[in-house]
Design a protein that fits this description.
alpha/beta, Rossmann fold, ten-stranded mixed beta sheet, globular, Dihydrodipicolinate Reductase, domain 2
Length: 389
């Protein structure tokens, strides 16, 4: 069989079979969503894989799927049509590339990869194979952003100069600390060495495993876990690609005593060629929201829980009419999977395809490096890399 998955041959409307790789908390949400739509979407989880035996056993019990400790064994299963890659960020690219080599379609949790260089490899691979890949920014299954783009593209708002969006929370003691499991035993029921992958080897600590989002080796922190959700929305709504320059500020301001390497508060400014500037705001110590706005010279578009509104600037009230858009779709895992199913079966457009995923990674990593280096960063378009300005 070539690199094309079995679901791409005649009969693609038949049941789609899924292999789940990584069975932690987010994967649990995916598995439950897929089980809810099992009959309506004609989809079935047939394999689950995890390096921690306890999580693997729980996933097998939940789904009735066959358990595997080695993800490559899942990729060898002829009848698996697509894989759900719900591993930590530092494993996204390797598993995605291996899945594509095996001819499997892919749903990969966000961010698409940990680094820009990894994203370039994934983009090349997916384009070469013709496989379908959905990146897990499930908010893009809300049609508000693609509808907003029509107004932006048609010039309804005038020249777009600024967009702003946030994603904040308020943790009481420390942020992103997840409950550890006293049953875990590296070398007995957890393959800790394999879990670390290409990162520097560290002695096992429960916090590294259960709260990996707090450490740069495994995560982009706020930028990779939260901002990628928000900036991807703006990328879709504004028709953006690569930022030209970017800077970030922030730090560990509230939670200063823990082991976290990442900041608890972060603000980012990304300049896109010819405008706009996109502003991203987050704190894990204060959850007061910031309006999600696209500011044009003639009007302002504000995203709301039910869709968006467009309000003309005062001097353009006679030219621009107010708009209220009521969204269809939602930020939902089942809808995002169903969109992938439609792409596999009927070549429907993906809500968050590999290029959209790539643009999000560039924005996210540019923000990370600006904060860590305390420097302005820019995009080298010729070599597709982030450099110091």
């Amino acid at each position: 069989m070539s690199a094309l998955a079995y679901s791409q041959i005649p009969g693609a409307n038949n049941r789609l079979r899924v292999g789940v790789i990584g069975c932690g908390g987010q994967a649990g949400g995916h598995m439950r969503a897929l089980m809810r739509i099992k009959e309506s979407s004609n989809v079935e989880i047939v394999a689950v894989c995890d390096l921690y035996q306890k999580r693997l056993d729980a996933a097998a019990s939940l789904t009735g799927a066959k358990p595997y400790k080695e993800y490559k064994k899942v990729l060898e299963i002829k009848d698996v049509d697509y894989i759900l890659n719900a591993t930590p960020e530092h494993w996204h690219s390797k598993i995605t590339l291996d899945a594509a080599t095996a001819g499997k379609h892919i749903y990969c949790e966000k961010p698409m990869t940990r680094t820009v260089e990894q994203s370039k490899q994934v983009v090349a691979k997916i384009k070469a194979t013709g496989l379908k890949m959905q990146v897990g920014v499930q908010g893009t299954s809300d049609n508000s952003y693609e509808t907003a783009y029509q107004y932006v593209k048609d010039g309804y708002l005038g020249k777009i100069v600024l967009a702003q969006i946030d994603y904040s929370r308020n943790h009481k003691d420390d942020f992103w600390i997840y409950k550890t499991d006293p049953d875990i035993q590296p070398g007995v029921n957890l393959d800790w060495n394999t879990w670390q992958g290409y990162t520097k080897k560290r002695p096992f600590e429960p916090e590294l495993y259960f709260s990996w989002r707090r450490f740069w080796d495994y995560s982009g922190g706020i930028s990779g876990d939260l901002f990628v959700h928000r900036v991807t929305r703006m990328i879709k709504a504004l028709g953006l690609t690569f930022p030209s320059m970017g800077c970030a500020a922030g730090g560990k301001f509230q939670f200063t005593n823990g082991k976290a390497e990442i900041p608890d508060t972060m603000t980012v400014l990304l300049d896109y060629p010819g405008g706009p500037t996109v502003q991203l705001i987050s704190s894990q110590a204060n959850d007061t929201k910031v309006p999600h706005l696209i500011r044009g010279h003639k009007a302002t578009l504000e995203f709301t829980p039910t869709g968006f509104t467009i309000t003309p600037q005062k001097q353009y009230e006679g030219e621009v009419k107010p708009v209220v858009h009521v969204k269809t779709g939602a930020e939902a895992l089942d809808l995002h999977h169903q969109n992938l199913h439609a792409a596999i079966r009927t070549n429907a457009a993906l809500k968050c395809d590999v290029m959209t995923g790539y643009y999000g990674v560039v924005a996210s990593e540019m923000a990370c490096w600006s904060l860590r280096k305390r420097k302005y960063m820019k995009w080298d378009a010729a070599k597709e890399r982030i450099i110091t300005a």
